[in-house]
Each structure stands twice: as C-alpha cells, then as structure tokens.
Amino acid sequence: MCLAARLRQRIALEAVDPDRIPLGPRSARDLRAERTSEPAEPHDPAANRSYGFPVGLWRALARYRPPGTGHPRAWRSPLRGPWLTSVFGLILLVTLPVVTLTGLVSYIAYAPQFGQAIPADVGWLRLPRFTWPTSPSWLYALNQCTHVILGLVLVPVVLAKLWSVMPKLFDWPPARSPAQLLERLSLLLLVGGVLFEIATGVLNIQYDYVFGFSFYTAHYFGAWVFIAGFLAHVAVKLPRMVTALRSRSLRRELRTPRSRTLPEPLDADGLVAAHPAEPTLSRRGALGLVGSGSLLVAVMTAGQGTGGGARKFAYLLPRGRSYGDGPNGFQINRTAEAALIDTRDTGSSWRLSLAGGLGRITLDRTGLLAMPQHTATLPISCVEGWQTTQTWTGVRLRDLAALAGVPDPTSAHVRSLEAVGAFDRATLQGNQVLAPDSLLALRVNGADLSLDHGFPARVIVPALPGVHNTKWVRSIEFSDG
Amino acid sequence: MGEMRRAVARRSRFYGANPAHPLVQLGCFALAAYSVSHLAENPNLSRMILWFAVAVIGHDLVMFPGYALADRILTASSGALSRSRFRLPVSPVNYVRLPVLGSGLLFALFFPGIIEQGSVWYRAATGQTQEPFSGRWLFVTAVMFAAAAVAYVLRLGHVLARRSMRTRETSRGRGTGGVAAPDDE
C-alpha cells in the first residue's frame, strides 16, 4: 500500500474532516493538531444510540439480531454520508412537490364538479376547486408532460437517495425509542408511497395494467399516503439537511477527483461507513452518475411531450412511435376496434343528436359540413404525459349550443357510440363549450377524420384532458342551469 | 422555569425526541389513514396494499441487495485482477458500471414494452404492437457498452502514453530523486 493510500485510510478511520487535509505526507502530530481544532460534532453520536422508553424492550431486541442487520462492517461505500444524502434530498425536496402538484391539478382538469374525475369521492383530499381554463391550449399538455416526464427523470435520484440511507434500514435494533419507532413507520409510508407511485405510473404510461386495480384511484390515494410521509419527513429532517449541506462546499466537491475523495466524518445517524473501502468513484462522479441517469431518461422520454422531430427519441415508449405521414398519421389513444365501434353506425345512417331548450334536433354529416366551419390547431394531450398537436376543422361547439337553443350553456354532456369503456361520455364546462376554438371536429389536417380518430365527428377542446375529447360522437346535450 | 425545562428534557429522553415530533408523526398517520379510508369499500384494496408492500420489499430486499452484491462482485474481481500479474493500468470498474446501470435503468422503466407485457391493452390503446421494443432496448444497450469500451481504450491509451513519457523523463533526470506519483483520475 502506498503512503497516500495508507494516510487516506487512517484519516477515514479517525474521522477527520477530509476537506481540511491537503494531500501529501503529513506527520501524525499534524493530524492530531488538526483533530483537536475540529469543532464539536453538531449531533453527539452517543445521544442517538442511547435508549428511550421502554429501555428493556429495545435492549432485549438488540440482543436478538437477525442475520443481515446491524453489521456496521457490511457498509463499505466511502461516499455515503449526510452531505451526499442531503444533496439528493434537496433535489427531491424541490422537484417532488412539482410532480405531486401537477398530479393534483390534473384531477381538477377532469372536472370533479361533474363527478367525472376519478376517484369521484376524495373528501378533503384535493386542491381548492377552480374552473379549468381553456387557454393556453397547451396547458393540460404542459401539466401532464411535467408530471410524467419529471417523475420519470427523478427515478434515478429517488433510487440514489434510497441507496444513500440504506444502512439505516438494516440497522439493529430497528428503533431505540418511541420516537424512532414512529419515524420508521412514517418512513415506510414515504418510501412505500414513492415506490408505489413510480410503479403504478410507469406501468400505466405503457398500458400495462398488470396490477388489476383502477390506476386513477390507486395512484390518487397512494399519492396522499406519499404526501403524508413526505411532509413528516421534511418536518423532521429539514434542519439536519441544512446542517449537512453546510458541512461541505459543493464547489469544492465538484473539483475533488477520486484520488482525493475521503469519507465524511462519522455521523450520528450511522450513514458514514466505519470501515470504508477505497473509493472507486468521487462524490462528483457519483452525482454525475445519477445526473447522467436522469439525463438519459429525459432524452428518452421528452419526445412524447414535445412531439415533432424529438418524438423518435422516446425510443422505448409507446408515444415515440410513428403513425406514418398522412393527415391522420398521429397518435391514436383508443382504436375503433377496441371501442367496439360498428362501421354500420358511422356510415351514412349516422346522425348527431342535439338536445337543449328547444327539444331534440338531429343532423347528418352533410348538414354539419354545411354549417360555418372553423379551423384550430390544438393538442390532444393525455394523462400519460404525451401530446400531439394537429389542425382540426369542424363546427364550433358554441354554434351547436345556439342551434339547440342554449346559447349560454353551463355544461354540455357528450356521448359516444362506444359500446364499452369508462370514457364513452364526458361533460364539458360552460367555458369549454363557449371557447372559440372548441370544435366538433369533422376533419383533421385537411382530410376527413379516420375511424380511429373518431369519424364521423369528435370533440376537440383546448386544454382538455385527452379522454374527454370524445370520439365517435352520438349526442350532445346542452344545459344552462 | 428551570424545573419546567428539566421536565421537558426528561420527557424528551423518555420519548426520544422533542415534543413537536410525535405531533408531526401522528399527523402523518392521520392523513395517510384518511386517504386509505376512502378505499374501505374498494374490492381491490387488499391488492393495492399488496402492491404497496411489494414495492417496498422489491426495492429494499430484492433490488438493493441484488445490485449491491453485483457491484461487490465487480469491485472484488477488479481488485483481484489488479493484484494479479494481469494488472490493468486503468480500473475497468466504472466502464462496466455505467453501461450496466444505464441499461438496467432503461429496463426497469420500460420493461413492459421490452418483454411485451400487457400486449392486449397496448394494442387497444395504440393500434400497434410492442414488437420493436426488445430490439430497440438491446440496440441502446449495445451502444452504451460500445461507447464505454471506446472510452476505456482511449483512457488506457492516454495513461500508457503519459506513463511512458514519464519513464523517459525520469530516466533522463535520474539522480534528482523524483518519484512518480500514482495515476490520478
């Protein structure tokens, strides 16, 4: 072993703040002098190791150590420590609330006032109600793409954060006081919550419903379990995170190569390895590794949100695929086949039924095409965090409302020819009917809609969740009260 | 005053933290319980709880020990190699770790398409099949391994070139007592 390595090991064992030790041979006296000038530990390691009530129980538990736990020597990474954990913690502290809030905003976008947001009954577990706007038209796309793509990009950070605190999971006894016991239970909610949300979300965006329960319901209430764990964890750990972040300079870490990477000083929580191995990676290398993971995920998912030329970079995702170059060559959200659409119902016998103040009116497709046509470029954006923007032509919904005798509707109930599925109907808010770009679209990109895109007619409303842009429309009922 | 502070300190030692701590924890459990109470009538509640548990166990007791063990094997075999006569001037550890982690991450996130799971729903939702994804994943994996191999060879060449230069310099400047520093990375 060379001198530098031996010294490194010794410094590690003596838990001297490595930042203060420049490389190079130093005498033992130098080291000792430096140690005595060290400020006192902010947390007394012994304090956390002593037992609370009931002391006897924790002591007894400590004696019956199951294999695989409580081995301080088993943890060898020289990088684990409060500072590194806190860096990951800070990133998640800023970003996870964005993922959570966009998820809750999406619930509002489904218009829970009509009972059509899923799950329908959430009690107090929702954002204050507000009328979901129709402008800007990309609002829902932005919200959902942020939710899904940021959520995916954070997966490497969540995994790194969990890696960094793993020694605590395998600590024995699992608790030394009632406080620690409660905290571990709330951590279970936090960790279980975040992993559950990741797992269900990842499966849902790929149409893999192997879990066998309602995605919306589970993801929504799971989110609140996560929120509960997250808030408690932040409340308890925020001061420690701040202290730990102040203990080292990020800028200096980013300049420290592997050869000069030393463990953090031993900490009260036992994150720092008591017997660390030689580093195979610097701290900046570890941060870079996690960052490259996130970057890789970003590059391979962003295309489903941006569309255009970048779409093909969403190389492993359903919404990175091409549907050809034709006017109807864009992402299909549900095929006519899956919706059990019978082509006998969509042919010349098809009629649109309008209901409102003047009773019932029926129109055929020729009649609709004879009405004033309006063209708008609008995205279809889905809860799965993808969008595709196309140019739609058709009759304004507000013209149909006026025709039905309800010029100022408060809502409109749209029904589809679909024989199966949860989204064979949708209720639109008054502002969504009246928005100048809200259409009953008959054509897209200059051609008739294809059957898979909702021929003979479909709804397209700016900033509306994709599944509420009902395809194969059969009837619209306008109400004003 | 001092009496009160002592009482608080005694209770803190008994409980193990300051008095705000239990309030925060109980608030957390109350919110989580209120959330789950909405599922009381849901026939799939036990399934959801099972998935919650599987998510935790799958990560903490399967995935983490799995990758930790794999990494321990990787570093140990690299260490054994460096002690043998086939000592490599540049450790290959990170050049293996990076593509393995990249490929593993992509698999963990996008496995339903790669293993064609849920193909019926996939077809219903998109009108397409999942057929291309396994080949695409293998292709990205191959690219990452190839890139790591190229980077390793370049690094190796760089270190060897620097080393031979240094050997020449020390043989020229013999007598000054200079000792070559170990390779920095």
UniProtKB/TrEMBL annotation, chain A:
Residue ranges annotated for the Oxidoreductase molybdopterin-binding domain, each copy included: 347-480
Annotated spans, Disordered: 24-48
CDD domains for this protein: SO_family_Moco (cd00321)
InterPro entries: Di-haem_cyt_TM (IPR016174), Mopterin_OxRdtase_euk (IPR008335), OxRdtase_Mopterin-bd_dom (IPR000572), OxRdtase_Mopterin-bd_sf (IPR036374)
GO BP term, pick one: respiratory electron transport chain
Domain of life according to the entry: Bacteria
Key words of the record: Membrane, Transmembrane, Transmembrane helix
Entry keyword annotation includes Transmembrane: yes
Biased composition (Basic and acidic residues): 27-46
Any GO molecular function: oxidoreductase activity
Protein name: DMSO/TMAO reductase YedYZ molybdopterin-dependent catalytic subunit
Source organism of the structure: Halopolyspora algeriensis
TrEMBL record, chain B:
Stretches that traverse the bilayer: 49-74, 95-115, 135-156
Keywords: Membrane, Transmembrane, Transmembrane helix
Descriptive protein name: Uncharacterized protein
Organism (species): Halopolyspora algeriensis
